[in-house]
Give the backbone structure.
Amino acid sequence: MPSESDTASPPGTGPGGGVSVSSRVRPVARGRIVAIANQKGGVGKTTTCVNLAAALADVGRKVLLVDMDPQGNATTGSGVDKNDVDLTIGDVLLGEAKAADAVITVETAGYDLLPANQDLIAAEVALMEGGHKEQRLSHALRPIRQNYHHVFIDCPPALNMLTVNALAAAQGVLIPMQCEYYALEGLSTLLDTIERIRRRANPGLHVEGLLRTMYDVRNNLATEVSSQLMTHFGDKVYRTVVPRNIRLAEAPSHGLPVTRYDRGSRGAVAYLGLAGEIIRREREAHQGVSVRQRSR
């Protein structure tokens, strides 16, 4: 059963959930794109995008958040008025603007943002009718991705052409999910889609990890589903667990990530812990590559 200690200080984090100093000074790769996806709505995709981006920015990582949802929740959750932006990701996908020109620096959160609003619906229709429709986002991000350590794409709650573009552009997929009855069924559909995209358009695509969100330790079903996830996916399941938390739910209405709204809240500690876990995994992967190279 996940416990409070799971959310408080996973490996790679320091006291209070902050990332340890040693994580700050190690060189890290740039340009890694991760799609945060789940076709089921209300599982914490946007919450994870905004708060993970802010947590990594807090430890000196350069982060770009790409809002690929016409609802524009990642945009408003970052404190940006989605109806008062000159350029959006929709303009970029339509070829009417370069990604670099549409990027906004979100000073209050510490990361850069490619915003979205309802105009993205028109861009999706155009993608359905145009050539190379699955690769538009990948091509658009190519000139700027190396400016960042992390690029996170907030996908819409549907397996539509916008999500396909995100998966075709990404190297990894982070899947937030609630531990509830229909979770595993929906996960199977998403994994099938990821496999199709991998075969058809993006051979390097893989599942980065599964993140348990809105977790309630008092819920027996949540504990059972969590156990099933661990059994089936093992190390692919992040040790960090994001609990249900009022401050985490309140933060978007203030246009702030929870780490800036209430850094001591359980929600903030969880996302700081997730950032630490991602850095630890990065470090272990880098060390593994180095060991293999030395053994040749």
